[in-house]
Amino acid sequence: MHSPSRKDFVSLTFTGSGNYNSKQWRRQSCWRKWKQLSRLQRNLILFTVALMLVCGIATYPAVTEHFRGLTVVVKEDEGHVLKPVIPEVLPEPPSAKQKRAPHKRGPPGLQNRLQKKGTGSDIQVEENPIQDAKKADKEEGEKPLVKRGALIEADQATEGGTAKEAENKVDVPAVEQEDHSHEPEFDRLEAVRDAFRHAWKGYKEFAWGQDELRPISKSYGEWFGLGLTLIDALDTMWILNLREEFEEAKTWVSTELSFNKNVDVNLFESTIRILGGLLSTYHLTGDTLFLDKAKDIGTRLMPAFNTPSKIPYSDVNIGKGTAHPPRWTSDSTVAEVTSIQLEFRELSRLTQDTRYRAAVDEVMQKVHKLEGKQDGLVPMFINTNSGQFTHLGVFTLGARADSYYEYLLKQWIQGGQKETELLEDYLQALEGVKKNLLKKSSPNSLTFVGELSHGQFSPKMDHLVCFLPGTLALGAHHGLPADHMELAKQLMETCYQMYAQMETGLSPEIVHFNMHEGSIRDVDVKLADRHNLLRPETVESLFYLYRFTKDRKYRDWGWEILQNFNKYTKVSTGGYTSINNVRDPEYPSPRDKMESFFLGETLKYFYLLFSDDPELLSLDKYVFNTEAHPLPIWSSAE
Ligand code: DMJ
Questions:
Q1: Is residue 443 reached through a cis peptide bond, with omega within 30 degrees of 0 on the bond before it?
Q2: Is residue 523 within 8 Å of residue 495, measured between CB atoms?
Q3: Which residue numbers are catalytic?
Q4: What is the main EC category here (predicted)?
Q5: Does the CB atom of residue 463 touch ligand 1 within 6 A?
Q6: Other Cβ atoms within 10 Å of 609 Cβ, number
Q7: Which tens digit of pLDDT belongs to each residue from 171-210?
Q8: Taking residues 558-581, what's their average pLDDT?
Q9: 554 Cβ closer than 6 Å to some ligand 1 atom
Q10: What is the largest CA-CA distance in the chain?
Q11: How many Cα atoms sit within 13 Å of 192 on the Cβ side?
């Protein structure tokens, strides 16, 4: 029991007689009790009441929010999202200095969020990109993503990106980048057809019948003067079911195309683009117009093989029937003389004229026996007089050697897997790649293929090398060791990262990988290597990897790349352009050139990547030449 006399605590006892329900009694009784309290007791009570009042006012909004939060559905970023009542982690308030990275690409662990304005140098950036990525992701979650685009206006021009050009830069309005990522494949196929139509529109309006469109200046460039883009694009139009465009182009081939011209053409380029394009169009359509034209150009290219060594010259005059090496050397490029075989062999099969095949087979037989290889890897040059490799000791899977390796495998496939020398050379070369050229980058351990120069390794990799994942996967599909497929997957990731780690999401022509521990990021790009020519190799490999694995990530990667081509290389008046700087999304600096392989290869491989029909150019029936023209695999009787 508490003693009522004690004054150090409050004790209110509401007892007494009378009508305690009456208001007056209660008022009087309370007042009396209050008066009976000590000053300390009264102050304590007043203090407690005041405290409760202050707390009540302070917590009122949170309480009401709590109850609202249980039911409110918030519209966010076009979707309806039920917001969690209590976020797991409260976001830091954004400071004025914090900038959200404008692009979101790739697995967060490997994205490069170094969205530095004015990317003058690649080399030293203090932040850790992975931490940056996480931070940027977190920031992205805080506010709706505003995506910018840069559809290039034709008068925004320019090769080189000079200061004057920058001055003249037209500020283009922001364009919403559409996100079709969760829509059916149909939309992606349509997006490829749209891209083709847009490219074709520019070609038709400003370069019809010429070699290449110059979309910024709304003009054209000539290389051989043979309608190169039109011929390279024929089978793509057929495959994409763009029949109206195809018929127009076919009319041009039948009425305008003549190879009886006094022009020098490059043997390799005209074989893979023109001869290859005509042969595959013949196979797809059955129209002998294309076979006749193929035979005409094939025959006109044959003088290239009239050399002391039978290793062909690089250039042929298709009107005069003469051939010669480049002015400054009697060497030819190894990739060029060993990547014309699929086409000439097929021409022999179709025409029953063995001369074409005999010429190119002889080249392969000679190269097979040559000294100067290292573990199956070939140098980049071969002399047309001596028939020997020159510039010994330098090995790459990039420019000047790349398609030698590709055609070893593909000739073996084309010929029904009977030519064992080709297979042996291919397998040996792959061992050479693993032993001499394959390394891992730092910090993310990306597998890459570097180069070797007189025993010195260089971590340089051309975008051209990105044909290799697709070729490795193709070999594994045709029964070669399963570890080829594992390597294909690793290299595919690397080639994708060459896009994803750039500010435009487009790969540069050449990258250098970091190998030393403590590197900040995997990929560096030298100033001179920042261009993108709309090349196909990565998309090509994504197509093979998707066909064989059905892993949807390859399609999603391809979709990202297509969107970035649309964002940074599409010219408003028609066509797409190569760009000078993949590291500057504000001003990628158009080069004013649409290479024929963008239509012949890049868009075709996009379409095949997104197509669900495995019978659309089945890889058990067709082998693609190095310009993406499908040629039949011969039956075992042939
Ligand atoms: C194309 O002409 C061919 O793919 C060739 O094998 C390499 N160069 C271009 C595309 O990059």
A1: yes
A2: no
A3: 269, 402, 509, 537
A4: hydrolase
A5: no
A6: 27
A7: 333 334 555 455 568 899 999 999 999 999 999 999 999 9
A8: 98
A9: no
A10: 134
A11: 30
Closest by CA to 217, choosing from 548, 492, 594, is 594
Identify each DSSP E strand in 535-638 by its residue range: 622-624, 630-632
Query: From the CA of 623, how far away is ligand 1's center (Å)?
Result: 16
Task: Give the mutation target among 465, 537, 538, 602 for probing the ligand 1 site: most ligand atoms within 8 A of CB.
Answer: 537
Structure tokens at 339: 């990547």
CA dihedral for 590, 592, 595, 596, sign (positive or negative): positive
pLDDT at 309 over 60: yes
Measured in Å, residue 405 CA sits from the centre of ligand 1 at 14
What pLDDT digit, counting tens, does each position of 512-538 carry?
999 999 999 999 999 999 999 999 999
Q: Give the whole-angstrom CA distance, residue 245 versus residue 197.
A: 9
Among residues 481, 471, 498, 513, the alpha carbon closest in space to that of 623 is found at 471
Please name the residue whose Cα sits nearest to atom 1 of ligand 1: 627
pLDDT digits (tens, 9 = 90+) for 85-100: 222 222 222 333 333 3
**256 neighbors 209 (Cβ within 8 angstroms):** yes
Give me ligand 1 centre to Cα 290, in Å.
Answer: 22
- Ligand 1, atom 2, lies closest to the CA of 627
CB-based contacts of 586, cutoff 8 Å, min separation 6: 117, 150
In this structure, what are the phi and psi dihedrals at residue 252, rounded to the nearest 5 degrees? -65, -45
Which two tokens mark 303?
């003088």
Contact yes or no for 226/210 (Cβ under 8 A): no
Work out the average pLDDT over 125-135: 33
Strand order in the sheet with 389-390: 331-333, 381-383, 389-390
Query: Would you tell me how many other CB atoms lie within 10 Å of the CB of residue 135?
Result: 17
Residues 105-128: b if buried by 16+ CB within 10 A, e if exposed:
bbeeebbbbbeeeebeebeeeeee
Identity of the residue numbered 72: V
- The neighbour count for residue 486, using CB atoms within 10 Å, is 13
Whether 596 is in the pocket of ligand 1, judged by its Cβ within 6 Å, is no
Among 127-131, 270-274, 332-336, 505-509, name the one with the lowest average pLDDT.
127-131
pLDDT band with cut points at 50, 70 and 90 for residue 140: very low
504 is an annotated ligand-binding site residue: no
Structural tokens at position 414: 């084309």
Specify the higher pLDDT residue, 71 or 532.
532
Q: Which of 449, 351, 337 is nearest to 384 (CA)?
A: 337
Give 617 Cα–ligand 1 centroid separation in angstroms: 20
- Whole-prediction pTM: 0.76
DSSP-based three-state secondary structure for 557: helix
Helix 468-477 / helix 402-414 crossing angle, nearest 10 deg: 20
Q: Using pLDDT thresholds of 50, 70 and 90, give the confidence band for residue 50.
A: confident
Atom of ligand 1 nearest to the CA of 463: 11
